[in-house]
Amino acid sequence: MSSMYSTEPQTRGRVTLTTTHGDVDCELWATECPHACRSFLELATSGYYDGLPFHRIVAGSLVQTGRRPGSDTEAHLLRSHVPPRDEVVSRIRFARRGMLAMARHTRAHASPDEGDNLPYGQFFVTLDSCPWLDGRHVIFGTVGQASPTIFNLLRVGNAEVVEGTDKAVDPAPAVTGVKVLECPFGDILPTLDAPWREKEGADG
After folding, report:
1. CA neighbor of 103 nearest in space, from 43, 155, 184, 150
2. What global pTM score does this model have?
């Protein structure tokens, strides 16, 4: 076993990201990052990530998803799903591919002019080691190291982007759903009145 794996804490909680490029099996650090994991699972069980594109693809570094526009959605996230800024664990680092992290900066590295443009609900997954991100983002999970689904993640990272940007060419790879296989919390329930669910009901 690689030394970087042996120093990481035991995971607790499992989910599968279903994507247009295949499933990606993930494990969570719910003991070390309970607030980040709880926020992610509450959004996942409420269908927040369903159908959202990987709107940011940085070749060889990371792919990011979770941006859902709409003032009602933004207000809901600000009220109920503000991820913590300080669940940074020294034993969990951006030392390899497959690390799941909150897109929101940690408090120590937050820009003073972030204002209302904070990426609530958004997370990214690394495609390689990214040591310059250590301490800047809360890492709350990892793609299962024994799972071949890491290669589906790499396929997402190989998607074509608009020249000179990190925006994927349409149709962008997307998350089609999140399956919670092992929930580390006993009280996670879907938010039935979430604004994105109301919109889906109206469209149906």
Report:
1. 43
2. 0.89
